[in-house]
């Protein structure tokens, strides 16, 4: 039979990213397109020990859990907020989700009506754009610079559209890697506060910062908007994040922290979506974090040292002849380099040629609500090993050289 799908499913149409994910299972294929950490750096032995301990000591871990999430893990997050991020949060203000993507999805379900205006950084996360499109939001981009989104344009867009919320990622914005200045954070928060516009702050990449700076020092220098809003007491900011980039993605454990009324409403939506995220995974993650054989903060420091090395290698490769007219800003953290292609090459056409050679990147238009950005690509430097970085960048460089020779 022919199915009459809901109109909103058009927002789920396949994109080049879905195709690239299917290709990435090939052993010889090198992908810079996805938001993946390096699996060779996963804490396998501590995870195995934590899993064995949870199963042997607590059969209840295999039972249903609370829709809001495993309380001891929420309490651990609150201690982390206080100790590392100078943010005093109560466990009742925290909801555990199936990754940060679900946190955004739940928020959209309870807060965004079809036809509501939503402001986003330009460019922004492809996954979040899909969620907002699925909800029927009118997505309005706000341009920025090296310090964050532009306050003047933010004000102008607010006057024109009366938005429901603003979606931002001040710590290493996906895809640009921009790190907002403290002054810009305060200015944007005050603008949204004065106009009663909710801010959704994604901190999925904030712990991945380079230059040898410690976590406390980093979050003291760059406090979250959530922290500046007194950790939800002002009700102005919903703060979301994930363990996927710092522990392992497969545990699918993210979180949302905010005003108690907002979290309670999102918990109701969570029950409708899947009742709860995996109780076992949350117990396992908590066991790992509390283990005497695993130090999450030392693990993150190790990740940051290795990822900084890979970033330096990628930027050295960007100096090779094929990339000589490409432009990029060196990020201070995160997982991506945002590259303006040489000679205004079209990223989608270049992707087709690059895929034939066995390498992929994320084309810029997927990061723009209006399909702009054809001259840009996003390169992930955390997942490919050093040899793969060298080979993959050479393959994309070959594709660029072929296009440049034709013009």
Q: Can you describe this structure?
A:
It is a single chain. The chain has 407 residues and is α/β, with parallel strands linked by helices. It is 43% helix and 14% strand. The protein has 14 helices and 15 strands. The chain has helices at 16-23, 44-57, 71-85, 99-111, 126-134, 151-161, 182-194, 215-221, 225-228, 260-274, 279-289, 296-317, 347-357, 386-406, and strands at residues 30-31, 94-97, 117-121, 138-142, 144-145, 148-149, 165-168, 198-202, 237-242, 254-257, 327-328, 336-340, 359-360, 362-363, 376-380. It has a 7-stranded mixed sheet, with helices on both faces. The protein has a 4-stranded antiparallel sheet with strand order 11-12-15-14. The chain has a two-stranded parallel ribbon with strand order 1-13. Strand 11 and strand 12 (336-340) form a beta hairpin. Helix 2 packs across helix 11 (279-289). The radius of gyration is 21 Å and the shape is globular. The N and C termini lie far apart (48 Å). The model has no long low-confidence stretch (mean pLDDT 93).
């Amino acid at each position: 039979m022919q199915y009459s799908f809901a109109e909103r499913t058009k927002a789920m149409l396949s994109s080049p990213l879905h195709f690239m994910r299917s290709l990435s299972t090939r052993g010889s294929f090198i992908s810079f397109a996805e938001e993946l950490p390096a699996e060779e750096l996963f804490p396998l032995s501590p995870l195995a020990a934590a899993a064995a301990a949870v199963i042997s000591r607590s059969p209840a871990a295999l039972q249903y859990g609370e829709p809001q999430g495993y309380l001891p893990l929420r309490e651990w997050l609150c201690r982390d907020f206080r100790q590392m991020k100078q943010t005093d949060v109560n466990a009742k203000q925290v909801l555990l989700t199936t990754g940060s993507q679900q946190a955004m999805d739940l928020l959209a379900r309870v807060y965004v009506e079809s036809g509501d205006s939503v402001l986003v950084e330009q460019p922004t996360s492809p996954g979040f754009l899909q969620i907002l499109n699925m909800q029927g939001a009118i997505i309005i981009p706000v341009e920025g610079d090296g310090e964050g989104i532009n306050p003047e344009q933010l004000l102008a867009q607010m006057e024109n559209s009366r938005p429901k919320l603003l979606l931002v990622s001040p710590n290493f914005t996906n895809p640009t890697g921009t790190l907002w200045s403290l002054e810009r954070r305060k200015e944007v928060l005050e603008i949204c506060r004065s106009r009663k516009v909710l801010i959704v702050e994604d901190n999925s990449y904030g712990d991945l910062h380079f230059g040898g700076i410690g976590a406390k020092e980093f979050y003291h220098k760059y406090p979250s908007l959530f922290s500046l809003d007194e950790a939800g007491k002002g009700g102005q900011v919903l703060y979301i994040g994930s363990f996927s980039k710092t522990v392992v993605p497969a545990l699918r454990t993210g979180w949302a922290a905010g005003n108690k009324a907002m979290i309670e409403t999102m918990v109701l939506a969570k029950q409708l979506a899947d009742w709860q995220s995996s109780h076992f995974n949350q117990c396992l993650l908590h066991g790992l974090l509390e283990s005497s054989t695993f130090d999450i903060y030392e693990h993150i420091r190790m990740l940051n040292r290795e990822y900084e090395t890979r970033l330096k290698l990628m930027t050295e490769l960007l100096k090779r002849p094929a990339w000589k007219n490409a432009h990029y800003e060196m990020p201070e953290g995160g997982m991506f380099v945002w590259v303006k292609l040489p000679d205004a090459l079209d990223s989608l056409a270049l992707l087709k040629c690059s895929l034939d050679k066995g390498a992929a990147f994320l084309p810029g238009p997927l990061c723009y609500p209006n399909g702009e950005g054809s001259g840009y690509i996003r390169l992930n430097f955390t997942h490919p090993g050093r040899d793969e970085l060298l080979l993959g960048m050479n393959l994309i460089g070959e594709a660029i050289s072929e296009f440049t020779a034709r013009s």
